[in-house]
Amino acid sequence: SIIVLANSAGPGWEELVGGYRPYGTRFSGVIEQNASLLSLSTTNAYNSQILLPTAKSCFENDQISEAIKLYNLAGDYSTVISCLASALGTLLAQTGTTGTIDEKGKN
To answer: Considering the entire predicted model, what is its pTM?
Structure first.
């Protein structure tokens, strides 16, 4: 499931893992709704076996936005802050080399 989620960052990935509605309430994705089929009986099990490893894989593969979303869904807010700080540091380092960056953080 880690491979599926890491490669499914398209528009439907929130349907798989869940997300937040525009007004702030969380909704469960298909995987969490059917977690018992994966022998995951608690939210903590789902977080530790699905969301956190997938978030780590996304972060290691420079899919920072997806990693942040997954860490946030798992309730690992300190890691969300760490990812944001890392992304900001990278962005500032890129800005220092050319003085400008485009809208995607590329210089």
So the answer is: 0.76
